[in-house]
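INFO  loader      accepted 1 record
INFO  loader      residues=201
INFO  predictor   begin
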Amino acid sequence: MTRNLIAILRGVTPGEAVPICEALVHAGITKIEVPLNSPEPLTSIEAMVSAFGNDALIGAGTVLTEKAVADVSGIGGRLIVSPNIDPEVVAATLSQGLESWPGVLTPTECFAAIKAGATGLKVFPAFKLGVDGLGALRAVIPNDVPMYMVGGVGPDGFAEWKRAGANGFGIGSALYKPGRSVGDISAIAADMVASYDAAFS
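INFO  predictor   done
INFO  writer      dumping tokens
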């Protein structure tokens, strides 16, 4: 089962990337991004792709330039996530055959991302929009456009966000933060998967 959960490993190091990736995949989270402002992010991404590229959709977050897209594509990454909507970055991503998830918050940004051809919308920071705000956006955003909530969301709110029209979530510090053990990450991931399955079943 593929779940619409993206693990955001901001600050992960190459030495821990593969064990953490293994724990996430085993728990059932198979979409994983390493933000490019992490230590040696391309090294981590390449290692995870080598180990689990057939089992997970792995790529980069905080992608701001066309060059960064090319760098990620060159090491086998297939997921490009940004905090903003830049049509040139989206176009570069699509030209490489990768998934494009630009960050949006307003209706103007949402429709700019849709026009650019984004795979889906990363609503960020979701806590600023709120559940009611998402419901208002969903009244005008086409139903076939996936919307993932990122920023201040957690398993306690999965069901409520889903009712408002969310299709998935990006989870950062609630799942991973530097110094957290692989065992703790594994346990947290399992709980998140259980909450997701309960909300979306």
